[in-house]
């Protein structure tokens, strides 16, 4: 059963597509006619059904839908969408290929710039990137009515999934590259340096590769099989993956370079330590960082506790999630799936300022998450066993914009009130992990503990490059990928001029 | 890469020691550090265990654990030649070792295991070692011989008097603190409640006391924060800020409660596993 259909029967869509295609092929489809094509909704699992499972919510376009959606693209000469894309995918070209029915070509075009279309098509915040600048969206003054670039990207990535080609690898250079962290940045950096013929090893601290894509982003938003496929491709290319290897502890970067013969290193270790609010009661039982909650649920499969999985997670009735980003939405929606009766999302600004994707906010609401905006916990209250019983919140109003450009939340004095909960999930971001810093004295960090790099993602150390959250503080999958690609190009250039150790 | 169990021994009713292959960890490990292991790949729990000993030449580490829950029970059922899928480490900051003068090493129950390498390193650094090791009863006492080898003075206690002196470790600790030559430093590792009372003793005498905390962890690299404890009123992560802390600043009461966060679930899992091993005959081996 699918939700969110536009009520148009498949055969009617096919008929419409045939008419449009004839005109399109003849070069007679005018912009006004393209504007008139209804935006294609994403087929999804119904909310009532999907809260009972962990399967992917969005089911993907049908072929008819994809081609109809592709025909909405005006093919603007200046292609403003490309400007909105962090990795500059030739968007209008791949969409034109979809309109022509040449999905293989479309995928090849995407892959020139992005290695993980099946991932990015699902988790990129298109509405603030390519779709924000899309002319069609601007015409309707609504980025959600822009051409659905992300859904089209996903469509071609999934369509050709079974015949995924393994990128060609240049003859062996005998240069050794260490990639620290197997998240999106690490995967791209590994693939690109391996393509140049280098001997590449990925070091991952967890027992499973994939980084945030396996421990953080839930299955219902990004199926783990997709991530595994990308890892498998790396392995087929000859990239070595070493798990349970904590760089800084098992071996330091200095040891990797001086003793183990690595000629270059890419550091993509991700964000690190979860931020807490610094309020009373944050160490009570039932208070989680979003990292911990999601890791237990996703990586350790705590939703199967007692049915095979050994990692427990709170059995919650009432959950408060604090924060307004994608991680907050993921936590809230995970809590729903774990059986919580009430899930509250507590955010101190308004929905407009939420950093989460519109789609995720919408999905969370559909799944029954109750939004408490302009509120924030002042303290967390526990019982005699130190288990959470409630949060005491303050109400907020919005003041002048702050340095982030968002209106500053100001607490309203005396507005305290309580919400009864047994679980609190703090999803307000991360601070840099100190491990690399503590164990790599020659590496330069900024005052927030993030690694300082130049425009080529090169650090203060010869042969050492870095990208993603450990550089940017908080990034997205696509930004991390973009940096992995820049760093890999710089590493390839750096190694081209030298001789192996 | 899986880690083969090269040797395994039962030290007491519920305490086991195993020597496992882990060449990189054996090389990098320093006293005070721990590992996180999970037995299988997909569904196993990740649990932290302290490294009791290591042989860098042979490429092995020794782990000592007590059978308390499902994972430690499952680990106890593994045999020589079996493999552990994942071992990650060494984790945590190593113990700060220097020549303090006279150092008291207090170990309780399974805590003797992580304490031993620290005591050894302190001895090698030139300290005079007074060891106080205790257990509930004679059967549960471990590593007495090893402590005897490296201690200038060894005091053994049991709660029930079945061996050594009938006392809690706090009693001889207090006496040692009262001596004319007050010890310069105390290290305590054992159950949280024991560490709490030992710290109360040493606080009276104003003797710096290091404790090693073993909290619930998931990743062990700072990412989840599940291991957080209150030190001097501020949250600290045992995995990256610890595992050792100034014992006089630890909020033990909160830590003890947090250790029980999943008590019901853990019990259920352990019971299920016990039933299962009866069915397949593991209890008879």
Structural notes for this entry:
The complex is a heterodimer of chains A (501) and B (285). In chain A, 36% of the residues lie in helices and 17% in strands. Chain A is an alpha/beta fold and 501 residues long. In chain A, strands 5-4-3-6-18 form a five-stranded parallel sheet. In chain A, helix 7 crosses helix 10. The longest helix of chain A is centred in the C-terminal third of the chain and has 20 residues, at 477-496. Chain A is globular. The mean pLDDT of chain A is 93. Helix content of chain B is 29%, strand content 31%. In chain B, helix 2 packs parallel to helix 9 and helix 5 packs parallel to helix 6 (192-204). Chain B is globular. The interface between A and B is large, with 46 and 47 residues.
List the secondary-structure elements of chain B in sequence, H or E. Answer: EEHEEEHEEEHEHEEHEHEEEHEHH
Strand content of chain A: 15-25%
Helical percentage of chain A: 25-40%
Largest sheet of chain B: 7 strands, antiparallel
End-to-end Cα distance of chain B, whole Å, is 28 Å
> Helix tally of chain B?
9
Q: Low-confidence runs of chain A (pLDDT<50, min 5 residues)? A: none
Mean pLDDT of chain A: 93
Q: Which chains share the greatest interface?
A: A-B, 46 and 47 residues
Average pLDDT figure of chain B: 93
Tell me how many strands of chain B there are: 16
| Individual helix count of chain A | 20
Radius of gyration of chain B: 18 Å
Describe this protein with a few key phrases.
heterodimer; A: 501 residues; alpha/beta; 5-stranded parallel beta sheet; 18 strands; 17% strand; B: 285 residues
Quick structural gist:
The complex is a heterodimer of chains A (501) and B (285). Chain A has 501 residues and is of the alpha/beta class.
Draw up the topology in text.
The complex is a heterodimer of chains A (501) and B (285).
Chain A: E1 2-3, H1 10-25, H2 31-36, E2 44-45, H3 47-50, H4 63-71, H5 80-84, H6 91-99, H7 103-113, H8 117-123, H9 135-139, H10 149-159, E3 176-180, H11 184-195, E4 199-203, H12 212-215, H13 224-237, E5 240-242, H14 253-258, E6 264-267, E7 272-274, E8 287-289, H15 290-299, E9 318-322, H16 326-337, E10 342-347, H17 358-366, E11 370-373, E12 375-382, E13 388-401, E14 407-411, E15 417-420, E16 423-426, E17 430-432, H18 435-439, E18 464-466, H19 469-472, H20 477-496
Helix pairs in contact in A: 1-4, 4-6, 4-10, 6-7, 6-10, 7-10, 8-10, 11-13, 11-20, 15-16, 16-17
Chain B: E1 3-12, E2 15-21, H1 23-28, E3 34-38, E4 47-55, E5 60-66, H2 70-76, E6 83-84, E7 86-91, E8 102-108, H3 112-124, E9 128-135, H4 144-150, E10 153-158, E11 165-166, H5 170-178, E12 185-189, H6 192-204, E13 209-212, E14 228-231, E15 234-237, H7 238-241, E16 244-246, H8 252-259, H9 263-279
Parallel strand pairs in B: 8-9, 8-12, 9-10, 10-11, 12-13
Antiparallel strand pairs in B: 1-2, 1-6, 2-5, 3-4, 3-7, 4-5, 13-16, 14-15
């Amino acid at each position: 059963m699918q939700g969110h259909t536009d009520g148009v029967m498949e055969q009617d869509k096919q008929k419409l597509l045939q008419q449009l295609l004839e005109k399109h092929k003849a070069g007679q489809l005018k912009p006004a006619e393209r504007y008139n094509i209804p935006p294609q909704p994403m087929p999804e699992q119904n909310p009532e059904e999907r809260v009972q499972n962990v399967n992917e919510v969005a089911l993907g376009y049908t072929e008819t839908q994809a081609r109809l959606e592709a025909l909405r693209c005006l093919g603007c000469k200046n292609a403003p969408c490309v400007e909105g894309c962090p990795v500059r995918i030739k968007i209008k070209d791949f969409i034109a290929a979809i309109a022509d029915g040449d999905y293989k070509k479309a995928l090849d075009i995407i892959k020139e710039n992005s290695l993980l279309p099946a991932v990015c098509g699902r988790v990129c915040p298109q509405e603030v990137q390519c779709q924000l600048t899309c002319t069609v969206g601007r015409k309707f003054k609504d980025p959600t009515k822009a051409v659905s670039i992300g859904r089209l990207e996903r469509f071609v990535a999934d369509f050709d999934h079974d015949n995924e080609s393994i990128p060609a690898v240049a003859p062996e250079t005998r240069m050794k590259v260490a990639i620290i962290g197997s998240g999106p940045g690490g995967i791209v950096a590994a693939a690109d340096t391996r393509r140049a013929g280098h001997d590449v090893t990925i070091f991952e601290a967890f027992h499973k590769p994939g980084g945030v894509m396996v421990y953080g982003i839930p299955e219902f938003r990004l199926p783990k099989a997709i991530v595994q496929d990308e890892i498998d491709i790396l392995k087929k290319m000859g990239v070595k993956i070493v798990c349970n290897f904590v760089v800084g502890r098992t071996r330091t970067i200095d040891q990797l370079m001086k003793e183990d013969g690595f000629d270059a290193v890419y550091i993509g270790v991700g964000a690190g330590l979860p931020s807490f609010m610094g309020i009373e009661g944050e160490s009570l039982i039932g208070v989680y960082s979003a990292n911990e909650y999601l890791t237990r649920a996703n990586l350790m499969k705590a939703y199967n506790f007692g049915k095979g999985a050994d990692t427990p997670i709170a059995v919650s009735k009432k959950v408060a999630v604090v924060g307004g980003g994608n991680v907050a939405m993921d936590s809230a929606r995970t809590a729903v799936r774990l059986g919580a009766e009430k899930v509250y999302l507590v955010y101190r600004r308004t929905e407009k300022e939420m950093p989460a994707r519109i789609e995720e906010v919408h999905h969370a609401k559909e799944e029954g998450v109750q939004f408490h905006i302009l509120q924030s916990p002042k303290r967390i209250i526990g019982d005699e066993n130190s288990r959470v019983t409630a949060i005491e919140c303050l109400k907020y109003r919005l003041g002048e914009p702050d340095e982030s450009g968002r209106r500053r939340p100001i607490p309203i004095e005396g507005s305290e009130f309580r919400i009864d909960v047994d679980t609190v999930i703090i999803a307000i971001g991360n601070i840099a992990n100190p491990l690399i810093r503590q164990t790599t004295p020659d590496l330069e960090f900024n005052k927030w503990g993030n690694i300082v790099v130049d425009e080529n993602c090169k650090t203060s150390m010869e042969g050492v490059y870095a990208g993603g959250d450990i550089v940017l503080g908080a990034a997205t999958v696509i930004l991390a990928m973009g940096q992995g690609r820049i760093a890999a190009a710089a590493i390839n250039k750096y190694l081209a001029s030298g001789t192996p150790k | 890469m899986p880690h083969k169990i090269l040797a395994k021994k039962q030290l007491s009713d519920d305490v086991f020691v195993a020597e496992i292959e882990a060449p990189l960890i054996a090389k990098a490990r320093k006293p005070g550090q721990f590992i996180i292991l999970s037995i299988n790949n997909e569904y196993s729990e990740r649990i932290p265990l302290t490294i009791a000993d290591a042989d860098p030449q042979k490429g092995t580490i020794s782990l000592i654990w007590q059978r308390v829950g499902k994972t430690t029970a499952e680990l106890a059922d593994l045999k020589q030649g079996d493999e552990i899928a994942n071992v990650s480490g060494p984790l945590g900051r190593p113990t700060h070792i220097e020549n303090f003068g006279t150092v008291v090493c207090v170990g309780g129950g399974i805590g003797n295991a992580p304490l031993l390498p620290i005591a050894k390193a302190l001895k090698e650094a030139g300290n005079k070692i007074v060891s106080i090791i205790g257990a509930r009863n004679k059967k549960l006492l471990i590593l007495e011989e090893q402590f005897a080898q490296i201690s200038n003075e060894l005091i053994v206690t049991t709660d029930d008097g079945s061996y050594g002196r009938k006392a809690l470790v706090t009693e001889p600790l207090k006496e040692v603190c009262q001596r004319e030559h007050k010890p310069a430093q105390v290290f305590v590792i054992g159950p949280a409640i024991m560490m709490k009372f030992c710290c109360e003793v040493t606080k009276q005498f104003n003797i710096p006391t290091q404790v090693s905390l073993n909290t619930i962890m998931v990743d062990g690299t700072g990412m989840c924060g599940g291991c957080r404890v209150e030190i001097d009123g501020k949250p600290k992560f045992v995995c990256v800020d610890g595992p050792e802390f100034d014992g006089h600043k630890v909020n033990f009461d909160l830590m003890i409660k947090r250790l029980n966060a999943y008590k019901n679930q853990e019990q259920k899992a352990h019971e299920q596993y016990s039933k299962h091993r009866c069915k397949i005959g593991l209890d008879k081996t």
